[in-house]
UniProtKB/TrEMBL annotation:
GO terms for cellular component: chromosome. InterPro entries: Chromosome_partition/occlusion, ParB/Sulfiredoxin_sf, ParB_N. PANTHER family: CHROMOSOME-PARTITIONING PROTEIN PARB-RELATED (PTHR33375:SF1). GO terms for biological process: chromosome segregation. This is ParB N-terminal domain-containing protein. The lineage of its organism: Bacteria, Pseudomonadati, Lentisphaerota, Lentisphaeria, Lentisphaerales. Residues 63-120 form the ParB-like N-terminal domain. It comes from Candidatus Spyradenecus faecavium.
Length: 120
């Protein structure tokens, strides 16, 4: 083992560096409500107030509906014009055995039927 040089200074170990966090935490990102003055009326924000329910006959865009297959019509813009009979039969057998795994995407037509725009 080597002996240190006579005029060498001892090496001090560096203190462990404490890693700072990412910032001030979530409280800095999420605004906290101001405390209400004593006796003040606290009102909920407008977004928290319940809106009246839509009439039963009015459906919201993006809602999930179950409709009879007879009400679904093919889109005239369907890019696929010919279908392989074997693949179509396999799809029909799969639907019979497992049901529809991925929902179809349709839009309502003025005559009340639904136009298929996504899915098989």
């Amino acid at each position: 083992m080597k002996k240190p040089a006579p005029n060498a200074k001892p090496i001090k170990a560096k203190p462990a560096v404490k890693h700072a966090g990412l910032g001030r935490g979530l409280d800095a990102l999420i605004a906290q409500p101001e405390p209400a003055a004593k006796g003040a009326v606290v009102r909920p924000p407008l977004a928290a107030i319940a809106k009246p329910a839509a009439p039963a006959n009015e459906r919201l865009a993006g809602s999930v509906l179950t409709v009879p297959a007879t009400e679904i019509v093919r889109s005239p813009w369907q890019p696929r014009q010919s279908f392989d009979e074997t693949a179509l039969r396999e799809l029909a057998d799969s639907i019979k055995a497992n049901g529809i795994i991925q929902p179809l995407v349709c839009r309502k037509l003025p005559d009340g039927r639904f136009e298929l725009i996504g899915g098989e």
